[in-house]
């Protein structure tokens, strides 16, 4: 069963109120009818009394009496019908008035409840109507405005000509559909901005009788809009002025859609999403904030790219990408790396130059021995006393001395040759042996003994062996020189496993540190003939291996230099033997 439609409650309420005020009008015909019946009843009663009191009545009088009675009855019927028609008409009129009053009250309630100011001009430009919202907006009451002509009290003093132009535009019917933005002055002197919309006012015949205007106070929304616009302009000025390429894209079925790109991005990649996709570096679908460095083939530049996900203005998840041009930095880093390699090579050559006399003496011993063994073999052969066993023993000893000299030369050549830095899995013991073999040459001359202490479970490290040998040799030489006048004649090298790193400590008992805070500064040296670059280069090498180099005072006197190196992963393959051993 269909539910009957429900009427609106708002007009019903006004109609009921109107019924309460107009409910007695339709009772008027009933009251008249009752009074008429009372009069007729009195008339017939008086006729009856008269008939009873007259003794002699003629025939003509009786006829006239009947005719008069019929006339009265006929007139009574006419009056009753007229009263019924009047009652019906009164009832219809009462209902129409009640409906009209309800509609008028409803419309008046709507107008009074509106926050939009309503105002009506007649065709001559006089104010014909204002609603309470308009009065509240400007501070003037209805009596002060109805019938007023220009200048209106809410016009701003000194700008009447501008307001008159706006009024002429309004009365001409040429106002834009988007409305007009005007300024007005309240009764207290304060000013506000309003947006006004205009429409023609027509009567029931469709003829225009005036102009209806609606006004909304937009002072606060305009202030907020201007503040937002200024903030947006400042924000866009900052974004457009950045040297970083900033872009925002959204994932769509057709690919990446470019939502925003600043001037730097447009200069490198244009107004397309291809540059964003190129700089993603294969991270499509990965919601990470990691920073990567990638090379752009289209821009021929290096970029440091940071990528993250964020919520766009419409609620979509989009990709924000900030790409910083690091081409110059990469160029400077490469030049710095080359200069660092040259400095390291120079440092090694300087070290070898300082050890030249010691190396010459070290090489002179096996060469002298080789010469002696060969001369002895020649003398025995000339004397005819050479036996195979004697010659074989002399030749084997000479060969061992030649191998010894060859190893020394090979180590020197490997140490000072220029090569690209190459990190590999290498044994710490082999690095110590090669460095100590060089340092012992100078240590024996100064009568210092170098002892190394290694744990049994010492793991391999990930490092460039030549560079670490350079660091260790520099620290050993400094320790040996510091202990030249010390009573304690042993220099200790202690290696400890401190997962995930390996720590190497060079412990001397020399004169100690005078200014430890400046020890690693460039061109600062405690030696009169030193350049002050050795320890600085050592720290740079260790930090490039993700380690740390520092010095502390030895409680027993002297200095302890420590540096750390990262352990090599267990899954990394061992390098070939020719990278671990020095060939004779």
TrEMBL record:
EC number: 2.7.13.3
Entry's transmembrane regions: 24-46, 66-87
Annotated ranges, domain PAC: 178-230
Top-level EC class: transferase
Keyword line: ATP-binding, Kinase, Membrane, Nucleotide-binding, Phosphoprotein, Transferase, Transmembrane, Transmembrane helix, Two-component regulatory system
Family matches, as InterPro entries: HATPase_C_sf, HATPase_dom, His_kinase_dom, HisK_dim/P_dom, HisK_dim/P_sf, PAC, PAS, PAS-assoc_C
Residues in PAS domain copies: 102-174
Domain of life: Bacteria
Annotated catalysed reactions: ATP + protein L-histidine = ADP + protein N-phospho-L-histidine
Statement: the UniProt record of this protein carries the keyword Hydrolase: no
Keyword Repeat (UniProt): no
Histidine kinase domain span: 358-569
Gene Ontology molecular function, alphabetical: ATP binding; phosphorelay sensor kinase activity
Name of the protein described by the UniProt record: histidine kinase
Organism annotation: Pusillimonas minor
Lineage: Bacteria, Pseudomonadati, Pseudomonadota, Betaproteobacteria, Burkholderiales
């Amino acid at each position: 069963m269909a539910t009957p439609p429900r009427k609106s409650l708002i007009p019903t309420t006004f109609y009921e109120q109107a019924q309460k005020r107009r409910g007695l009008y339709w009772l008027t015909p009933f009251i008249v009818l009752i009074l008429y019946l009372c009069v007729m009843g009195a008339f017939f009663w008086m006729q009856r009394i008269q008939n009873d009191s007259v003794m002699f009545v003629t025939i003509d009088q009786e006829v006239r009496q009947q005719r008069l009675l019929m006339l009265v009855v006929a007139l009574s019927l006419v009056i009753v019908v007229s009263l019924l028609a009047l009652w019906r008409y009164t009832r219809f009129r009462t209902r129409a008035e009640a409906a009209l009053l309800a509609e008028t009250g409803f419309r008046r309630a709507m107008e009074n409840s509106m926050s939009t100011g309503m105002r009506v001009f007649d065709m001559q430009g006089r104010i014909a109507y204002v609603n309470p919202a308009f009065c509240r907006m400007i501070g003037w009451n209805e009596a002060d405005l109805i019938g007023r002509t220009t200048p209106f009290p809410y016009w701003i003093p000194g700008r009447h000509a501008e307001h008159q132009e706006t009024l002429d535009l309004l009365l001409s019917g040429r106002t834009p559909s988007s409305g007009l933005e005007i300024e007005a002055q309240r009764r207290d002197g304060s000013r506000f901005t309003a947006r006004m919309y205009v429409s023609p006012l027509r009567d029931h015949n469709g003829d225009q009788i005036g102009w209806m205007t609606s006004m909304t106070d937009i002072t606060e929304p305009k202030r907020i809009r201007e503040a937002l616009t200024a903030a947006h302009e400042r924000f866009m000025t900052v974004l457009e002025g950045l040297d970083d390429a900033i872009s925002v894209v959204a994932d769509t079925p057709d690919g990446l859609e470019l939502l925003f790109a600043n001037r730097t991005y447009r200069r490198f990649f244009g107004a397309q999403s291809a540059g964003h996709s190129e700089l993603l570096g294969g991270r499509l679908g990965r919601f990470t904030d990691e920073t990567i460095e990638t090379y752009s083939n289209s821009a021929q530049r290096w970029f440091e790219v940071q990528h993250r996900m964020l919520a766009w203005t419409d609620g979509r998840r989009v990709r924000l990408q900030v790409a910083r041009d690091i081409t110059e930095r990469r160029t400077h880093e490469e030049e710095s790396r080359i200069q660092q390699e040259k400095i390291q090579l120079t440092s090694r050559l300087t070290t070898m130059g300082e050890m030249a006399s010691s190396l010459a003496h070290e090489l002179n011993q096996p060469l002298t021995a080789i010469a002696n063994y060969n001369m002895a073999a020649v003398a025995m052969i000339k004397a005819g006393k050479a036996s195979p066993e004697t010659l074989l023993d002399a030749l084997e000893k000479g060969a061992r001395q030649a191998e010894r000299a060859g190893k020394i030369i090979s180590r020197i050549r490997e140490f000072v040759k220029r090569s690209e830095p190459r990190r590999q899995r290498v044994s710490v013991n082999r690095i110590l042996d090669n460095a100590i073999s060089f340092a012992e040459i100078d240590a024996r001359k100064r009568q210092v003994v170098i002892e190394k202490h290694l744990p049994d479970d010492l793991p391999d490290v990930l490092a460039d062996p030549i560079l670490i040998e350079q660091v260790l040799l520099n620290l050993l030489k400094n320790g040996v020189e510091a202990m030249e006048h010390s009573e304690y004649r042993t220099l200790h090298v202690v290696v400890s496993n401190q997962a995930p790193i390996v720590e190497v400590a060079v412990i001397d008992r020399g004169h100690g540190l005078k200014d430890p805070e400046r020890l690693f500064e460039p061109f600062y040296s405690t030696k009169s003939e030193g350049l002050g670059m050795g320890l600085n280069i050592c720290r740079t090498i260790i930090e490039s291996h993700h380690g740390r180099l520092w010095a502390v005072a030895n409680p027993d006197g002297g200095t302890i230099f420590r540096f750390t190196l990262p352990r090599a992963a267990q899954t990394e393959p061992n390098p070939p033997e020719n990278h671990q051993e020095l060939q004779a």
